[in-house]
Amino acid sequence: MKTLRIPKFASSTALAVILLAGGAAAATAAEAEGPKKSWLELFETTGFVGYLMLLASVAGTTLVIEHMVNLRREKLAPAMLAGDLEALINEEQYDEAIELADQEGGYLSNLIGSALRMRHAGYEEMVTGLEAAANEETFKLNTKISYLSLIGNVAPLLGLLGTVTGMISSFQTIETLKAPTPGDLAKGVYESLVNTTMGLFVAIIFLTIYFVFKNKVSKMCLSINMQAIDMLRHLAGHKAAAA
Fold first, then answer.
1. What is the longest distance spanned by two Cα atoms in the chain?
2. Is 132:117 a contact under the CB 8 Å cutoff?
3. Measured in Å, how far apart are the chain's first and last C-alpha atoms?
4. Average pLDDT of every residue of the chain
5. Which own/partner pairs from 107-110 qualify as long-range (CB within 8 Å, at least 24 positions apart)?
6. Alpha-carbon distance values, 157 to 39, 43, 46, 90, 151 (Å)
7. Element (H or E) spanning 46, and its range?
8. CA–CA distance, 120 with 7 (Å, rounded to integer)
9. Strand, helix or coil for residue 148
10. pTM
11. Nearest to 202, CA basis, from 150, 167, 141
12. Helices (H), 117-232
C-alpha cells in the first residue's frame, strides 16, 4: 500500500505547487480583466508546456520524499550494525567483519569492508582504501540528489518555452483577426506569463531543496567517515604493537 500512496501524494503536492505558481503569475492580469480566474483555469491556459512542468514537479516531489526516507544516518550507518562491526574488529575477527559488511551493504559497511581487505598492507593502506570507498559512496549519493538540480534547471527553460508558445499563439490570433481586442490576445498572454512564473517557481523550490540535501549529505558523509576511521584505530594500535 505504501508504494501506491507515495506517488499519489507526490502528484497532489506537485499539482499544488504548479497551481500556486499559476495563481501568482496572473493575479494582476486577472484583476484588470474583471473577475478573477481560478488556479485551475490559470493552469489550463499553460497548454502542453504546463503539463510538462507538472510532470517535472511530480518527479521532483517523488525524489524529495524518497530522499527524506533514505538519506538518513540510520539508513546509511545503522547503530546496531556499527556496534557489531566494531565488536568483531576489537575481537580481531576480521573475516567475520568483512562477511557481515558484505551481507548488510550500505555506506558504512562498504567503507569497513574495503578497509579490512587492505589490513595486511598496513594501517595507512587501510585508510587509503577507506577513503577510496568513501569517495565512491559519496559520489553515488550526490548523483542521486543531483536529479533535483536537473529539474530545478530545466524548469525555467520549460517556462521560457511556454513564453515562446504563448507569444506564437498571440501572433496567430493577430494574424487571423482584422481588429483583435485585448480579450482575443489574453489567452496567449496568460500562457506566456503563467508558464514563465511556474518555471521560476518550480526552479526556486527544487534548487533550494537540492542544496539542503547536498549540505546534509556532505555533513553526514564526513561524520560516517570519521566514525569508520575511529572503528579502525584498534588495528593501528595492533600493528604498532606487532612492529
1. 96
2. no
3. 58
4. 80
5. 107/76, 107/77, 107/137, 107/141, 107/221, 107/224, 108/76, 108/77, 108/78, 108/81, 108/82, 108/224, 108/227, 108/228, 109/81, 109/85, 110/136, 110/137
6. 22, 18, 14, 55, 10
7. none
8. 49
9. helix
10. 0.75
11. 150
12. 123-176, 182-231
Beta-carbon contacts of residue 164 (< 8 Å; ≥ 6 apart)? none
Instruction: Give the contacts of 201 (CB within 8 A, at least 6 positions apart).
Output: 17, 20, 21, 24
Q: At what angle do helices 123-176 and 233-242 cross, to 10 degrees?
A: 150
| Tens-digit pLDDT profile for residues 185-217 | 666 666 677 888 888 999 999 999 999 999 999
> What is the grid cell recorded at 174?
493577430
Do 134 and 108 contact (CB within 8 A), yes or no? no
Give a three-class secondary structure readout of 73-136. HHHHCCHHHHHHHHHHHHCCCHHHHHHHHHHHCCHHHHHHHHHHCCHHHCHHHHHHHHHHHHHH
pLDDT of residue 28: 43
Q: How many C-beta atoms surround the C-beta of residue 143 within 10 A? A: 9
Q: Radius of gyration of the chain from Cα atoms?
A: 27
Low-confidence ranges of the chain (pLDDT < 50): 1-6, 9, 19, 24-34, 240-243
Question: What are the residues whose beta carbons fall under 8 Å from the beta carbon of 25, sequence distance 6 or more?
Answer: 42, 193, 194, 196, 197, 198
Residue at grid coordinates 523550490: 205
C-alpha cell at 175: 494574424
